[in-house]
Amino acid sequence: MTGGVLYVVSGPSGAGKSTVIKKALDKVEGFTFSVSYTTREKRPGEIEGEDYFFISEEEFHELKEQGEFLEYAEVHGYYYGTSKSFIKEKLDEGFNIVLDVDVQGSLNIKKEMPYDSVLIFVVPPSYKELQKRLMGRGTENEKDLKKRLEDSKWEIQRMEEFDYLLENNDVPESVNRLISIIIAEQLKISRIKDGLEEKVDKFFKYDFS
Ligand SMILES: Nc1nc2c(ncn2[C@@H]2O[C@H](COP(=O)(O)OP(=O)(O)O)[C@@H](O)[C@H]2O)c(=O)[nH]1
Ligand SMILES: Nc1ncnc2c1ncn2[C@@H]1O[C@H](COP(=O)(O)OP(=O)(O)O)[C@@H](O)[C@H]1O
């Protein structure tokens, strides 16, 4: 696998990002997940240092002042940030990295960061289904649930700015779709790195007259 690529997954709360990422990462080699910092509460079943680093707002602002975040945002009323040192360390080790980041953070990574990045937007089949999944997950209080559903209305509008749209109807199908996106991009990036794309262009420009 060619290393050094950031695969940035985004989409409304409840769309199925974590579910699809976790299952896909079990099936590919040379990939690691970027564990973010967050100030939101840990959900039942979430593991410190695997799902997130759960920290206080004071600790978050301290890390921000120290320049520890590659990017950060306030999302659905909580703070989230990507560890700069983690990203650098894993890229140096030749890994590709999957990140789960909000819409604005994803677009910032694409536009501002000096890395190869691929942006993938995960959507549920309908708003109704999103409501059903979020309520079914049962991890948000009434206020947070309402805010996340409200936020999904503008998040969905930004999907066109992403490289890929992944409609998450059936989990196994979505996992295969994410893996096929990764394989396609890996091939494309390794061909460019091997100069093959360049050769192909030269060949087609060859004057046959
Ligand atoms: N900008 C940014 N967003 C993040 C980061 N980590 C998680 N998020 C986003 O924060 C939002 C809320 O994440 P979470 O509380 O886990 O809720 P979920 O979307 O329901 O899984 C999601 O859109 C995540 O993609 C981060 O490091 N930076
Ligand atoms: N394709 C799917 N069909 C039905 N339920 C799903 C599907 N994908 C995820 N879910 C469920 O929907 C809820 C939200 O999934 P999750 O991965 O936490 O989303 P996100 O990380 O985008 O907030 C979870 O309870 C999960 O089990």
TrEMBL record:
Keywords: ATP-binding, Cytoplasm, Kinase, Nucleotide-binding, Transferase. Its EC number is 2.7.4.8. It catalyses: GMP + ATP = GDP + ADP. GO terms for molecular function: ATP binding; GMP kinase activity. Residues 4-183 form the Guanylate kinase-like domain. ATP binds at residues 11-18. InterPro entries: GK/Ca_channel_bsu, Guanylate_kin-like_dom, Guanylate_kinase, Guanylate_kinase_CS, P-loop_NTPase. PROSITE patterns: GUANYLATE_KINASE_1 (PS00856), GUANYLATE_KINASE_2 (PS50052). One of its GO terms (cellular component) is cytosol. Its main location: cytoplasm. It is found in: Cytoplasm. Belongs to the guanylate kinase family. HAMAP family: Guanylate_kinase. Essential for recycling GMP and indirectly, cGMP. This is Guanylate kinase. It comes from Geotoga petraea. The lineage of its organism: Bacteria, Thermotogati, Thermotogota, Thermotogae, Petrotogales. The gene is gmk.
